[in-house]
Structures are given as structure tokens and as C-alpha cells.
Amino acid sequence: MTPFPTRLAALLAALLLAACARDVREPAPAPAHPVLLVSIDGAHPGSLFRGDTPNLDALARRGTRAEGMRPSYPSLTFPNHYTLVTGLRPDRHGIIDNRMSDPELGGFSMQDRTAVGDGRWWSDGEPLWVTAQAHGLRSATMFWPGSEAAVRGVRPGRWFPFEYGLPEAQRVATVLGWLDLPAARRPHLMTLYFERVDTAGHVFGPGSAQARAALATVDAAIGELVAGLEARGLRERVNLVVVSDHGMADIHPDRTVFVEDLLPAGAAEVVHLGSQAGFNPRPGKRAALEAALLGRRDHMECWRREDLPERWAFGSHRRVPAVYCQADTGWRIESRERRARSKAPPHLGAHGFDPADPRMQALFLADGPGIADATTLPVFDNVHVHPLLLALLGLPPMPRTDGDPAVLRPALSAGTP
């Protein structure tokens, strides 16, 4: 028979562990106005006010917009979407590329649905929906990198596995349906994602007629969203924040560095190729790998991960490959063998280049009762979006963050705490 004090201690320990697992924090009052975060993947701020985006233009004129938003390094989709909802740079939240490897978890790619849904890949950062739910708020995601996984054991209250090509109108209708729910079930935080602009930019080039048509299609969906809010009497009651993850630059098949021309056979595991390339040495091959790649080469530069430029705030995470190469804007690092096997035509647009290049800048605009009217902000780093979203939700700043609440304070209306 277990002595009573021992049983009591065990019970208290179990209750403490359960409380930690549930991560219940100080309950937050329900925000007066729901927050809807919308991503238009690949949209550049220079695309506004050119005749293709009347609905986005109207939001930008009415509320707050930025001249541009600098993505975090590397300027890729998954790393920057996760930065927007964690306030951490990729080197800290761990989603350091669209394709990566981990000493314990193995390989990850955007197309690997098992890895995408494995919360262990995402657990170095806390996404906004996990924070919101820990404070007693409700969340729903219409696609967002990380939302398919149980991050630290928590998924959004409502979420969908990513479905490429799902019509924009269906996505908008889903979000509006959440706003039709009874108040006791209605989400306080919602996300919405569109990939069409990014896809067209990659295939046809960012300045192509097809890319402009894709943006016009997404702009029409934004118009449907705003009209739906107006029809429900919610136009002045929802804070709408529209972002993108990065811009896009023109590329051409002739502007390619082939790794076979530089890398000794068998010297390295190729972790990823593209606008950047990452390599881990095979046993006993580090010296050969470094001799072949380190330093400035034609149209690219390579470093040991611990020597990457400080301004990128990148290179300390365990998933960053040992040798890391960055192509010049407009160039790609590829494998001749992989290109020969590919049945798809070569892309004419890409991102992943230095965030300091204006072509990589992302879109930011916001409108709603918590947002300042008719305000234009200078270019800022995208880590500062997360503190803005916390403020709109009435949540306290996170203790672990790369964002500064003061940077986007001018985007908040006078009545927003």
C-alpha cells in the first residue's frame, strides 16, 4: 500500500504535468474585434496602384500600408510565413528552408505531408494560434505553414490540410462562414492564404501578363471578402492584415551555376538547391568540400554556417547545413542531372535572394477598427508583424521574440492599447 503523502505527491505532480501540457496561461479578455491575417504569397508592394488591384488599393488608402516589408533570411515561403506568426527569425524558429534536414528527424520538404504535419519540426517557435488558445481565445486557419501540425501539442481550433488550387472563392467563403458562427464559437484569430501569385511568378516571371492576371484574381477574392464583411455588418468590426512572404525576381535557365562543376563527387550530402544551396560533408570530406566551395565564386558566395553574414541573423540553428551558398539575385544553383530529369519547363521567376534586394520585399497593409487611417510606413523587417497581431488580439508581448512592438505602433489606431 502506497503511503498517503507519497500518493498525494504523485497526484500533485500529475496535476502539475497536466497543467503544463495544456499550457493554460492568464485568460485574456476576448478582443473587441477579430483579427484576420491574409497572405498573398509572392506579392510585391510595387504591384499595388498599377490598375490590377482596386480592392487592395482601397484597403491601402483607407488604412495603413508599408512602402515595403523586408523578409527574413532566407526569403522563402515556409521560413517567412512562420516568422510572421512567431515573431522569430528562421534561425530561431527552426524552419530554415522549404527543404531541410535535422539530425534527429531526417528530411523535410514542403511536399512531404508527413513531415509538414509533424509538430516536432515546428516546435522551436510558438505560432500565434497556440499563443491565442493558451490565453483562452479561439483560432481558425484557412491554410498557413505550421497549421497542419500539433505544435507543442496544439492545433488551431479549425484548420485544413493544404489543397493546392482550391478556388479563392471557396477559401473566402470558409472564412466568412466562421464569422457567421454564434459569438461563443466564432474565432478571434483567423488566417487565409493564397498561392496563385507566387505560382504564376515562378512559372512565367514576376512581370509577366500571367502574374498580373493572377494578382487580379486574388484581388477580386479580397473584394469578395470585404463585400462579405460589409453584408454582415462587420466591415468596421474586423481587423484585416494583408501580407506576403517575399517578392520575386526574374531568372533564366542560362543563369545557372551547376554544382557538378564545383563539387568533388561524393564529397557532400546536398540538402537543398535553388537560390541558396546547402551541403553537409560526407565523413572525411569536409576539407575537400570547403576547398571546392568556400569564398566568392562566379555568381554566388559560400560560407561555413558559423561565418554567414551577421546581418542575416542566420547560421546557428542545428538544421543549417555546414556549408551554405547564396546565389546572386537572378541566378540559381542547380544540379545538371536533376534538370535533365525534370519534365517541367524551367522557371522564369524565383525568390530566396538577399532580403536587402528591393525585389525581395513583401507586401504589408492593414485596415480595421484597430488600425490607423491613411498611414504609410517606411520599409520594416517582417519580425515586427507578430507584436502588432498580439496587440490587436489584446495579448501581452512574448518574452522570446525578435520583433519590437514599437516599430508598428504607428499602425495602430489611437484607441488600441
UniProtKB/TrEMBL annotation:
Q: Which UniProt keywords apply?
A: Signal
For this protein, the record's PROSITE patterns field holds: PROKAR_LIPOPROTEIN
- Protein name, please? Phosphodiesterase
The superkingdom listed in its UniProt entry is Bacteria
Spell out the CDD domains in the cross-references.
Answer: Enpp (cd16018)
Any single Pfam family the record assigns to this protein: Phosphodiest
Instruction: Give the PANTHER family listed for this entry.
Output: BIS(5'-ADENOSYL)-TRIPHOSPHATASE, ECTONUCLEOTIDE PYROPHOSPHATASE/PHOSPHODIESTERASE
Query: Would you indicate the residue range of the signal peptide?
Result: 1-21
Which molecular function term from Gene Ontology is one that the record holds?
hydrolase activity
**Could you confirm whether the keyword Signal appears in this record?**
yes
